[in-house]
Design goal:
Blueprint: E1 2-8, E2 13-22, E3 25-35, H1 42-60, E4 64-68, H2 76-95, E5 99-103, H3 105-112, H4 120-130, H5 139-170
Parallel strand pairs: 1-4, 4-5
Antiparallel strand pairs: 1-2, 2-3
Helix pairs in contact: 1-2, 3-5, 4-5
Length: 182
């Protein structure tokens, strides 16, 4: 069993989502947003992101962090603030001993929706469907859950590659290979 924390970083709103991955099945544990006041200094907002992520880690005990990479924002200033918010979340995860994995926004959308150019509403819908949620999650929380789902599916697929290669060398069909333990 793996518990994965997904983060959608932002300097005003940082989304988080926690999922459990067991034998190819993912289930919802928690999600929400770390809300930050625009009137606070950037240093205070980064501290709140750090403390918020530490608190989530302490409560849910994930072992892996999936976080969205920086994308080219509308302005260089926005990209820098986003990078700083990512840094605060990554440091919190590193301090708590989590393994950190980074995915591009298009990779996350591709893994969850099937297209790298999906709209936020499509991501929300697929996250709700894949995790059998009773309602549509808030957009930033949905993006964080999507990052966690992307990592759960991608890492399981990557773990199978050596097994498939070994089976081919041994002349075994891929369907006869056992499941990768999560």
């Amino acid at each position: 069993m793996r518990v994965i924390l997904g983060i959608d970083p932002g300097s005003r709103l940082t989304g988080f989502g926690v999922v459990r991955a067991v034998a190819g099945k993912t289930s919802y544990l928690a999600s929400g947003c770390i809300r930050l006041s625009a009137s606070e200094s950037l240093a205070m907002r980064l501290q709140k992101i750090y403390e918020g992520v530490c608190s989530i880690i302490d409560e849910h005990a994930p072992t892996e962090l999936a976080i969205e990479e920086v994308f080219m924002a509308k302005s260089a200033g926005s990209a820098l603030k986003l990078g700083q918010a990512r840094g605060a979340a990554i440091v919190a995860a590193a301090v708590r001993g989590l393994t950190v994995f980074e995915y591009s926004p298009s990779s996350i959308k591709q893994a969850v929706v099937g297209t790298g150019r999906a709209e936020k509403t499509q991501v929300q819908h697929m996250v709700r469907t894949l995790l059998a949620l009773p309602g549509v999650p808030q957009a930033d929380a949905a993006d964080a859950l999507a990052a966690a789902l992307c990592h759960a599916h991608t890492s399981e697929s990557m773990a199978r590659i050596p097994l498939v290669r070994a089976a081919r060398r041994a002349g075994t069909r891929w369907r006869s290979i056992g499941r990768v333990k999560a």
